[in-house]
Amino acid sequence: MITILFSNVLIVGGIAFLSALMLYFISKKFSIKENPVLDKIEKSLPGANCGACGKAGCKNFALACIVSSREEFENLYCPVGGAETMQKVAKILGFKAPKKEPQVAVLKCNGTCDNAPIKLQFDKIISCRLANQISVGQTECPNGCLRLGDCVKVCKFGALKINEKTLIPEVDESKCTACGACARICPRGLFEIRAKGEGGKRVYVACNNKQKGALARKNCKAACIGCMKCAKICSQIQIKDNLSYIPSDVSAEKYGEELVKNCPTGAIILKNAQSKKEHS
Amino acid sequence: MTKTFSLGGIFPKKYKITSEIPSKDAGLPEYVYIPVKQHIGTPAKILVNKGDKVKVGTLLADADGVISADVHSSVSGEVIRIDETEAASGYFENMITIKVQGDEAEDYIDLSQTLCKEIPETPQEIIDKIRKAGVVGMGGAGYPTPIKDTIPQDKKIDILIINGIECEPWLTSDDRLMVEKAEEIVIGAKILNKLFGIQNAIIAIDENKLKAIDIISNITKRYVGVNVRVCKTKYPQGGEKQLISAITGREVPSGKLPMDIGCLVQNVGTVFAVYEAVMKNKPLYERYVTVSGDMCKTPQTFKVRIGTPISFLIDQCGGYDEKTAQIILGGPMMGNSIIHTQAPITKTSSGVLLLSNELSKRPTPTDCIRCGKCVDSCPMGLRPYLIGIYTRNNLLEELKSIHAQDCIECGCCAYICPARIPLLDFCKLAKIELKNKQGK
Ligand code: SF4
Ligand code: SF4
Ligand code: SF4
Predict the structure, then answer these.
(1) For residue range B24-72, what is the model confidence (pLDDT) as tens digits?
(2) Can you tell me the distance from the alpha carbon of A165 to that of A147, in angstroms, rounded to the nearest whole number?
(3) Cα separation of B338 and B310, whole Å?
(4) What chain B residue is nearest to A120 in terms of C-alpha separation?
(5) Tens digit of pLDDT for each residue in B164-207?
(6) Is the dihedral of CA A161, A163, A167, A173 positive or negative?
(7) CA-CA distance, B83 to B96, in Å (whole number)?
(8) How far apart, in whole angstroms, are the C-alpha atoms of residue B34 and residue B48?
(9) DSSP 3-state assignment of A102?
(10) What's the rounded Cα separation, in Å, for the pair B152 and B162?
(11) What is the ipTM of this complex?
(12) Ligand 3 — pocket residues by CB below 6 A?
């Protein structure tokens, strides 16, 4: 009895040992060598796999960095990791880091519940993208925020949330990495990825309404009516389709306050106005 | 034996309260708003200017390209505005506003009620007349009819199905049309038969429309090549693919058109419009619209001029009060909410429903209980619960692999789901996303 048991243990143990040996040699023989540089680059990336760089995940971005020439590398940029990360990657490759201004998402709509009251209530519609297809939305502004938060759901960094008072999304500057996911998902194209500006100070038009003035004002008090007042202050400002656009190179320091003061509807927003002055 | 489709389907409550009430002429509103795009495809090119005097039947806008349709004036009066005007969805669309003065028709239209049976000789003549009348598919999407009719050379139509199924609850506009204009519809079917060189038109009617079945089957005895088939009352029996399956037993393969398997489906309203276009030279400028719903005081089916504001019809039915929670254009299963009642009736609007909170409120969803009822109910054989999960996680490849794009948006799954999950919303969103991705 004992001998049978013993021999069984021996046979099974022997087979296991042989298989282990075989596995060991095979794995040695057919092993794939990881590129150590690739590994290193990948480790210095944020690992968010968000696709903001335009590549499918961080690994692919690392690959693109390796195969790129010096010039091509200039065009690669990981907005999430920012300048710091790119510096690291550049160092590994022995290139110069591309220079890019820090960016942030801004919401081109100021249709808060005070400015644009709800006229017809949605009943549990699941998504902005669906609502956009079937109707103008609760405020009846055909270009404004639908308030159903597709952008909030898509943001991987928790930088967006629907403000309970205003009912529209709010960008948390410290968390936003300018990856652009919100800009891609919003059916009304309300997010713009823009330069953060000096000291975070930036001025922009928080409206996307392309209707004529009177119509735009009917649904929202803070709508841009295309009155040209801002364009007179700074010649870089363009007005197209009854809607003003302030390019990001218009200095917020120089023009910001004047623009806000002169806009009759309050469509122009100056962010972080107090960053330089202590009190306003 | 009544026929029906094999997969899925549901039996919603009918609410066909207007089916016995004869239709009424809605009369003339003060202004009509006529959209230049009431069909799928390119908008028509506007031919009139502000200040122009028009008559009933005057061509307002000309079809632009192959997939487009002519638009005619439905009233006589003066063009006072050509601009963006609010449509039922609340979005702005290009419309021609006409101030109604009198009721004078163009000379070429035959307004008499006499029945004409002399079908024109050549198919080309028929096509020209249909095209000139701006006929579009009146059942749903509004596909311009001439393209449905001019079939590519290599495709052979052997059966023409005329869709007299009105499976949406409440609506009775097709029902009334069949009862009141039975012979005209049968002649319309003969015209289309001639156009395709076939002798095989089937008028499909669901079994609860006893009167229509009775009248039309009596008439078809006198006409060769037009027959009536009775179908089971089941939703969505009126869906193109479901109807083909019920009548012929053929299946339209995914991504293919009915004409690929030799079938063509036309709505009864369209066939009636074809009759009027070919025999009476009358462009498509009026249609049957049911105004109903549990908050509607006097429900009624109307004969309405295209462009009439929806509010004009609602007022004739006793208006609405604050208890009305939702107003829907179309049927309760597939229609959409109206944002502006000032918006016009178009060639494709079949009904206006005023619903109370009890009927329109969407319940709070709970978690899926894995009952599989949605799968059983789907007439396309899809897995709606999976479409829901994949859409929520934005898994487009997976959505494609389970054929989410084949969904006909019938809403059976959302209707049946005991967990009240808005499955139809997810299906629609899935289709939007898949289309967007294709566009890129
Ligand atoms: S910003 Fe766009 S995505 Fe976000 S809630 Fe508004 S409409 Fe929806
Ligand atoms: S809505 Fe789409 S998924 Fe749902 S039952 Fe109808 S066809 Fe099937
Ligand atoms: S019917 Fe609703 S609860 Fe049942 S399996 Fe489908 S989604 Fe889940």
Answers:
(1) 899 999 999 999 988 888 888 899 999 999 999 999 998 887 788 899 9
(2) 12
(3) 9
(4) B339
(5) 998 899 999 999 999 999 999 999 999 999 888 888 899 999 89
(6) negative
(7) 7
(8) 12
(9) coil
(10) 21
(11) 0.84
(12) B 368-374, 385, 416-419, 421, 423
